[in-house]
Structures are given as structure tokens and as C-alpha cells.
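Its record is retained below.
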Amino acid sequence: MTGFARAEGHADGYGWVCEAKSVNGRGLDVRCRLPSGFEPLEAVAREAALARFKRGNVTINMTVTPPSGRVNLTVNREVLDQLMELHAELGDRVDTGRPRLESLLAIRGVVEVGEPEEDEAARTARLKAMGKTVGKTLDALAKMRGQEGARLAETLSGQVADIEALAAEADAEAANLPELLRARVKEQVATLLEAETGLPEERLAQEVALLATKGDVREEVDRLKAHVAAARELLAEGGAIGRRLDFLCQEFNREANTIGSKSASIELTRIGLRLKSVIDQFREQAQNIE
């Protein structure tokens, strides 16, 4: 299921923005993109995502803005001493005068900029606050996915109704199959023998019964009806039903394929093809369900 959510937070001069998005996926795949130094937050984000979602590719991004003006400046005395020694060594060759302090400090590597040190308690409190922002973002994402799921449920319900209607058509066509086969066999026999009738009624009945048995799709229709009832129960149940809907799609397809292979009439073949089309649409939508 698709969705996007965003939340912000701040503490101790730090500010952060958390964004989460999801796209369809057969399983649950969580990816975190966090700035350097905030790696401990990844475990919190993954746990929060696993608690809320069962399927989908979920990406969590966090950007952090540190406090402005809070930096530590340190002088790399080893580099500075090397520069002074080099000046003393070359001073006799080049008249440069005494080196100025601002010139020395401007040389790369002499002054190092670093983050100010902080105690562990402040860092832990900030990570906890950021974890709450992640949870807030994922809650909003789950809400958006739920709204999409409600809309998809209506679509799926309509497709289930179409499958039910086509199953009823197949059932009605199957009921007419014996008479259809009788007329077809009589016509074929008459054509072969060039006579009005050349097959005893008893033998004709046997042939029709054999063909009707081979082409009987009532068992497949009954299973289709059972799967329709199961699909409606799942849609009414709600929650994480995507995987079970996937399984039902396989069962729907199996019955539709069997009906097509058993078909003894053009109309039943057409019904089977329409069934497969609707089932394919149902399967595509079911993959978007949690």
C-alpha cells in the first residue's frame, strides 16, 4: 500500500524532520536513512514499523539540524609546531619576517572544528524525543494507508460480486449442458451417416451422459461460491488480510482455469475468460492490501 507522512521535532537546540513513505510489496521491507551519529535510532524505527505494518516497502528518512553557533575550536599543536620549525629552518633563506598568528590559524589543519561535548543523559533524551517523532510519522502513514485500504475494499467488494455473478452464469449454463450435448451429438451422427438418425436413443443417452460428466463444472462453481463467501468474510474482518486474499486469488484462478478446460460450450468458455479477467483485476488490487 502506498502513503506518505511527515513530522517534525526539536530539543536542546536541535531540530529534525522525519518522513516516511511506503509502496506496495509482498512482504515488509523497512529501510532507514539516518544522519551520521544517529544510528541507534534505526532499531527504534524498525521496531515501530514492524509494530504497525505487515506488508509494503517502507522508507524512513530523518534529517537533523544541529544548534547554530555551538562548535568546539581546537588547535592542532602538532601541525602548528611543524609550521614553526619549518619557518625557523627557512627563515635564513627567505626574509619573511615573524609569522602572524592569523596567518598561521588560517592554514588548513591548524584549527579543527568539532561538535561540543555533551553528557550521555542529554543525548539519550534527544534520541527518545526523535523516536517519538518517528512513531508519530508512522502513525500518520498507517492512517493514510488505512484510508486507501477502505477505498480498495469497496473496489474488491465489487469485483467479488462480479465473480459471484459469473459463477451463477456458469451454473446456469452447466444446467443446460445435457440438452446442448444431445443436440450436438445427434447432429454429428446425422452428418456422418447422412441420415436423420442413426444412433439408438439409449446409446445416444450414454454418449451424452459421458460427455456431460466430463464437462460438468458444478463442482468448480460450488467452490467458487465458497471462495466468494470467504472473500467477503475477510473484507468484513479488515486488518492485515492481504496474504489471505492472495491465497484466495490462487483458488479463484484454479477454478476458473478448470472451468475453461472442461468447457463444452462457447458460452461457458466466454464465461471462463471473463472470470479470469475479473480475478486478475482482483489479484492486482489485493496486492495493495496490508
Q: What stands out?
A: The chain has nine helices and six strands. Residues 72-114 form one domain.
